Amino acid sequence: MKFFVDTADTNDIRELAETGLLDGVTTNPSLIHKAGRDFLDVVKEICAIVPGPVSAEVVALDHEGMMREAEVLRKIADNVAVKVPLTMEGLKTCRKLTDDGTMVNVTLCFSANQALLAAKAGATFVSPFVGRHDDVGFDGMQLIADIRLIYDNYDYATEILVASIRHPVHVLESAKIGADVATMPPAVIRQLVKHPLTDKGIEGFLADWAKTGQKIS
């Protein structure tokens, strides 16, 4: 499974990239607002830090407007994935951009039927939002399972990019189902490494090592 980080904070991105665990980045207008910086400057900086796909979202709602904004975004760097909403206009834009060789992330997916449309439109990634799905009383993980089944049935190349991840269990369940990518906030990535028995084991080993009076040098 690929790990993307869902943030526009370049300090977090740089720190996580240094671990070698980061495969890409997703951003959205809300994250850009939180960062408080110029959108294009942030995307350019992120693309220089991470060689993998960097999702940058259009804000126009019509096909022509999306294409104009996409032209600006895809000129930033070769690893930009233009992010479009899962609407008819967004799918039309997806097809056009994909045919031109641009990576496209179709976002705000909440049903398997929508994911099917995204694959048929040639999306590089489809982003089902599991956390928001759970929030309104639906099973986000069942959505991922349904999409995986449909994509496997027809051998679609579109990658399932699980978004709106709230906690490590979302990551675990997505990996078990066979999702291609999980994008998550920096805090969730850091939570994945934590386990109380790991901490306890380190504490015990260090205590015993101190008793030996030795040094590694």
Architecture overview:
- With 217 residues, the chain is α/β, with parallel strands linked by helices.
- It has helices at 10-17, 29-35, 39-49, 63-74, 88-99, 112-120, 130-135, 140-154, 168-177, 186-192, 196-212; strands at residues 2-6, 24-26, 54-57, 80-85, 103-109, 125-128, 159-162, 181-184.
- β3 (54-57), α4 and β4 (80-85) form a beta-alpha-beta unit.
- α6 (112-120) packs parallel to α8 (140-154) and α8 (140-154) packs parallel to α9.
Question: What is the strand and helix layout of this fold?
Answer:
Blueprint: E1 2-6, H1 10-17, E2 24-26, H2 29-35, H3 39-49, E3 54-57, H4 63-74, E4 80-85, H5 88-99, E5 103-109, H6 112-120, E6 125-128, H7 130-135, H8 140-154, E7 159-162, H9 168-177, E8 181-184, H10 186-192, H11 196-212
Helix-strand pattern: EHEHHEHEHEHEHHEHEHH
Fraction in helix: 40-55%
Task: Detail the poorly predicted runs.
Answer: none
The largest pleated sheet is described as: 8 strands, parallel, barrel
Shape: globular
The averaged pLDDT comes out at 97
